[in-house]
Design goal:
Largest interface: A-B, 16 and 17 residues
Strand content of chain A: 15-25%
Number of strands of chain A: 10
Radius of gyration of chain A: 18 Å
Largest sheet of chain A: 6 strands, parallel
Number of helices of chain A: 11
Oligomer: homodimer
Number of domains of chain A: 2
Strand order of the largest sheet of chain A: 4-3-1-2-9-10
Structural class of chain A: alpha/beta
Distance between the termini of chain A: 37 Å
Order of helices and strands of chain A: EHEHEHEHEHHEHHEHEHEHE
């Protein structure tokens, strides 16, 4: 059994390309359609009802491209819209929070996990809920790191200013005694090397993009949805508004190759 | 002749409080109503049509509070919505760009002016247009500084990380030979001390908040709209959604005192 339909991936903007990168590495034969809602980014400050409505619109656009699975490469959407997406669409829906939380629980030895993300993600408590749903005794130290996304979007991925900001954000978590850190924002894998430098050897880094891709692989296998082809799948990127500087930053840092961006303005 | 109605000031968020601070210092007897559209901030990435529509909505809310003048304490709105606001409302409308541009032209000796702002403001070319409208021969070096707003909103107003980011942004402008720098974002006056440190003595800093307040003073005098009272006027702050951390940063740094914030959700 095989299924040649593409995997549909969407995000409020460009950050979700880190999930695409992980999917490309893990499932090179799959076709991928990426949809970034650059016209309405960021979703973090918007109400849950609005985020749910936008998520359904994006998912519908991907379903019209015949997606066999929907990957929600966005923490904000994953934290509020998975139930409504799962209910509305017949294909499987995979978010970034569950897989990241699961990987963190497997990685931790001292049952003390750190979570970093945007203000909106940390305020939502989404990782706490997901972690505590599996293990009520795990300790969690979380911290909003609002400067990291702007630093990433400026392309300062390997820069001493970024290193100092990271060190400052992580210091209290390290003092708390975490042994595992979840990157709770799809932008953050672009800073994995810098964050790993700051953490040293004692703390394990959990990249939710990679873990999301692993969850997608497992699901495709379970439901016999893998593409049957042996050649490399195609990646197509659609945005709802013109991309800014960050698209080139992400493209270069992730070594992602794709043809021209398709612009699809929202109705 | 005197006029006891309040001055209405609005912005896409909290940044416009720097203009309020300048107004309070210059016109202490005036009542001020501030309206920040925190529910829909930031305006920078939105289309001009959307920004115009939002600006009219905010102005209408202030007109219902009986404003005698409308101060647009936001560069994005000032760059696209002044004509429609002026057309729609009978009271005077003052933006931040014109007064800043005029002050820069008065300050420069070598006719070479630097402008810094958000990506959206720099991309709009609004300061270039305003400067060239008065003096076609002035040279302009402009630069988007997208990290400054996040650094300000994190409260890092006097911090070596911020100093290094500022130095990096300003270096090419200083190399170009500017002798005057316009702060083209209402957040930036909160970094005036840090920016002045980085500029040294040779470059004059033009704070568009202060220059906007001077323009308001002149207009009230010309149209006999000054409040007649001798006691201190009242400042009331209304936001369209709950404020985040930045409100306390601004309030403290600007030494602004006002009663409880009023929340007025948009319809």
């Amino acid at each position: 059994m095989s299924d040649s339909r593409p995997i549909g991936v969407f995000d409020s903007g460009i950050g979700g390309l880190t999930v695409v990168k992980a999917l490309r590495d893990l499932l090179p034969n799959e076709d991928i359609r990426y949809l970034g809602d650059t016209a309405r980014v960021p979703y973090g400050p918007k109400s849950p009802e609005t985020v749910q409505r936008y998520a359904v619109e994006l998912a519908e656009m991907l379903m019209r491209k015949n997606a066999k699975a929907l990957v929600v490469a966005c923490n904000t959407v994953s934290s509020v819209a998975l139930p409504s997406l799962t209910k509305k669409f017949s294909v499987p829906v995979i978010g970034v929070i569950e897989p990241g939380a699961r990987a963190a629980l497997q990685a931790t030895r001292n049952r003390h996990i750190g979570v970093i993300g945007t203000r909106a993600t940390i305020r939502s408590g989404a990782y706490e809920k997901a972690l505590h749903a599996s293990d009520n005794n795990v300790r969690i130290s979380s911290r909003a790191c609002p400067l990291l996304v702007p630093l990433i979007e400026e392309g300062l991925l390997n820069d001493d200013v970024t290193d100092r900001v990271i060190a400052r954000y992580l210091e209290p978590l390290l003092c708390d005694g975490i042994d595992t850190l979840v990157l709770g924002c799809t932008h953050y894998p672009l800073l994995s090397p810098a964050i790993a430098r700051s953490l040293g050897d004692r703390v394990k880094l959990v990249d939710s993009a990679i873990n999301c891709a692993l969850a997608v692989e497992q699901l495709l296998d379970e439901q016999s949805l893998r593409a049957g082809r042996s050649d490399r799948g195609e990646l197509r990127v659609t945005l709802t508004d013109a991309a800014d500087n960050f698209l080139s930053v992400a493209r270069e840092a992730l070594h992602l190759s794709f043809a021209e961006i398709e612009l699809q303005p929202l109705p």
